TrEMBL record:
One Pfam family here: Orn_Arg_deC_N
Cofactors: pyridoxal 5'-phosphate
InterPro entries per the UniProt record, alphabetical: Ala_racemase/Decarboxylase_C, De-COase2_C, De-COase2_N, PLP-binding_barrel
Domain Orn/DAP/Arg decarboxylase 2 C-terminal: 17-350
Species of provenance: Parafannyhessea umbonata
UniProt keywords, alphabetically: Pyridoxal phosphate
Name of the protein: Diaminopimelate decarboxylase
Domain of life: Bacteria
Listed GO MF terms: diaminopimelate decarboxylase activity
SUPFAM superfamilies, per database record: Alanine racemase C-terminal domain-like, PLP-binding barrel
Length: 396
């Protein structure tokens, strides 16, 4: 969104706020599809941005929900249950019973352990309900199961009338910039899916790979951004083309889909010089905007003044409203001659930024969240929310 569009949102609601742009969200999904091989499905990891699940469900093939809350958000947004993959390392037994016994039409369940397998398959048999499972292969972390456990489970339920092992899910991390690593992981998954199919007695129908395609937050050179973001995506496409797997391939993405659709806007409430350094205090802060790999403003995130004036090379350190020396959003950024009331925007804030911060610290209000549709219409998805009642032992 350009400066004029963001200033218009600033007239629509009080700062600080997040605004998510539908056109950019749709364009980003299209850009991703253009790179991937034909017929590759896309699964959106909704933890990246739960506020866009309704619109994005029309753009992607699936959404991954990793908690009871995320399932409820999908249901409230009217997401087709068949699009939902219920995942998570700590599945709520009550929710699993509700979804399976109630025949909610959930598309798939992931399975992270033998205990989860016993719970899910037991509920299916008890309620005479058929379920499709994606068995999660661990990469050595706490998530998923090792290869031997998966092979045993596949062999054990080869003829189960209520449980179908649909495929294997494999996720190894985020912000992966190594093309060679992506190629190795896809090849490994390809081989393992074939092995499990042999143990299961028939080829598996699907393999799902959490590609972790990167978003470049701190580099401004277009060539460097292309190198960071496009090359791994092209490597992924080549690796998928080279697989022997003939079933459905699904790529799970969160950050790469949602990051560019969001902007965080905050307002300057104080501007001063300290020992010759320009310092701006804004009404937001580090509790509301976080970037992967950004700590103590050691790197410069995508930040711009929306009302630039004066010397464009004038540098500022922008600090938030928290009473901690850690609340530094950006150091020595050329923003012009900032003044009280000016708006400062942080781009690529559409993934995780609005949920990962320590939002209850100092009992400051949660920011408003605005949706801008393709026609430019603004909708308030969430108004400012007081957090003081959440931090108080007595009603306020």
């Amino acid at each position: 969104m350009n400066a004029e569009e963001l200033r218009r949102v600033g007239e629509f609601c009080q700062t600080p706020f997040y605004v998510f742009d539908e056109r950019e969200l749709a364009d980003q999904v299209s850009r991703i599809r253009e790179v991937l091989p034909p017929r590759t499905n896309i699964c959106f990891a909704m933890k990246a941005n739960p506020f866009v699940v309704g619109p994005i469900s029309k753009l992607v093939d699936r959404l991954e929900a990793c908690s009871t809350g995320e399932v409820r958000i999908c249901q409230a947004a009217g997401v087709d249950p068949s699009q939902i993959v219920v995942s998570g390392v700590a599945k709520d037994p009550a929710l699993m019973r509700e979804l399976i016994a109630g025949d909610a039409g959930i598309g798939h369940f992931t399975c992270e352990s033998r205990l989860q397998f016993d719970m899910l398959s037991g509920l299916a048999r008890e309620t005479h309900t058929h379920i499709d499972l994606l068995l999660r292969l661990s990469n050595g972390s706490q998530f998923g199961m090792d290869a031997s456990t998966i092979m045993k489970l596949a062999a054990a339920c080869a003829n189960d009338p209520y449980v179908t092992i649909r495929g294997i899910q494999y996720f190894t991390g985020t912000q992966k910039t190594s093309s060679k690593r992506i190629a190795r992981e896809v090849a490994k998954l390809d081989r393992f899916v074939a092995e499990v199919g042999r143990a299961y007695g028939c080829p598996l129908a699907e393999m799902e790979y959490g590609a972790g395609l990167p978003v470049e937050y701190f580099e401004r050179d277009p060539k460097a951004v292309r190198q960071t973001e496009l090359e791994p995506a092209l490597a992924l496409s080549r690796a998928l083309t080279d697989t022997s797997f003939s079933g459905q391939v699904t790529i799970e993405l969160g950050r790469r889909i949602a990051a560019t659709c969001g902007t965080y806007v905050t307002r300057v409430v104080d501007a001063k010089q300290i020992d010759g350094q320009n310092v701006a205090i804004v009404d937001g802060g580090m509790h509301q905007i976080t970037y992967y790999g950004h700590a103590m403003a050691m790197k410069q995130p995508p930040c711009r003044a929306l009302t630039p004036h004066g010397d464009p090379d004038l540098r500022w350190t922008v600090c938030g409203s928290l009473c901690t020396t850690n609340d530094i959003l950006v150091k020595q950024m050329p923003l012009g001659d900032l003044a009280v009331g000016d708006l400062v925007a942080f781009d690529k804030a559409g993934a995780y930024c609005m949920t990962e911060g320590m939002s209850l610290f100092l009992s400051r209000d949660l920011p408003a969240i605005v949706w801008r549709d393709r026609a430019g219409k603004l909708t308030l998805l969430r108004d400012r929310i007081e957090t003081a009642p959440l931090n108080s032992v007595r009603p306020l």
